[in-house]
Amino acid sequence: MLRIDGASSGPPPITQALLLQPKSPASILMMTSMHELETLRALLESALIQVRMPTGPRTFALRLK
Question: 18 with 27: CB under 8 angstroms?
Answer without folding.
Answer: yes
